[in-house]
Polyprenyl synthetase family protein (Brachybacterium kimchii), 382 residues
Amino acid sequence: MTSSDLPSAPSELDASFHELLQQVLTDELDARRAQLAAIAPEASGLVDSLRAFLVGGKLLRPRLCFGAARACSTSAEDPDELLALARLGGAIELLQAAALLHDDLIDRSPTRRGRPAVHVEMAELHRAQGLRGEADRFGGAVAIILGDLALSWARDLADADALPGAQTRMRDARAQFSSLATEVMTGQFLDVLHQEGGFRSPADDEAAALAVIRWKTVSYSVRRPVLMGAAQQGADDAVRQQLDAWSEAIGTAFQLRDDLLSVVGDEHSTGKPTGGDVREGKRTVLLARTRASAAAHEDARGLDLLDRVVGREDADDDAIEAVHDLMHATGAVSSVAADIRALSARAEAELAGAPGLEAEGREGLVRLGRAATDLTGLDVDR
């Protein structure tokens, strides 16, 4: 998942919330660094790595949380409410860091946001310091540990007892965060299982890919952050249902777009390596449609190409380009793009019909949704 091409935070996020969120994260990591340094000076470097890992994020999920709260009530801007939202936003950011640290290791991704992934960084540190044992194994172990720490600290930030404001609303928001953590980790498992051909309960490969999107991406990228913000403001069931429907559509379109970026995106601007999904063998909706179309047209050459190239980390650029050409030729790219546009339009219709939302907050969610699903400049309709 990438949001590297979303508008920068200051132009989209209320300045006071953005500043407070950054302060919450800074204070939390400063305190954690002191805590680890008291255990052992070597351990404090873990916090430095996590702090560097967070640099460059566009804060999409906290922005959605705040945007939903602001759409539900102008009281979201009150100092106590703002602090509660900033703590929830910080918790979301740390949970995302935990998920990405582990995801990079699982996918053996060498980079994150233009820098070495943490497991790679730590392997390089192992070599530079001449430590004993296997450098790559050490790097992987540290990435797991740091991800576990980030998840633990995220839970502490979202602790309802530590959040200012009415405790019933805070506990409701904290319950949404707990669901977020469970769902994204379960979605990660389903993704890994699907990669190995073991996710068999859905009807077909496309349904399986959509189920992975539902739990790995939609839940933690859009749905739960939005519902956390709504819960924190005490939104009623009717408003939550409308925001839930908007979140499902935007979250699905967001991931479908991210899948397209591996084929038609510019890796220098998106941060997503071109051809990365093909080399990793990711079982995306895009791949499922490509294979299904090739099979329906009895394209033996196309099916053979997919079998030979998809999942091969050593596949050369010509082979990757051939797979991408097949994705275009089968109509898979254009059909996924059409779905993204339809989902984005459906989401806007949901918001337009949502009762009781504040106009400014509603427009903020619309802008975020458009930015997360925009196909401008992408070669999707050839």
Notes: Confidence is low (pLDDT under 50) at residues 1-12.
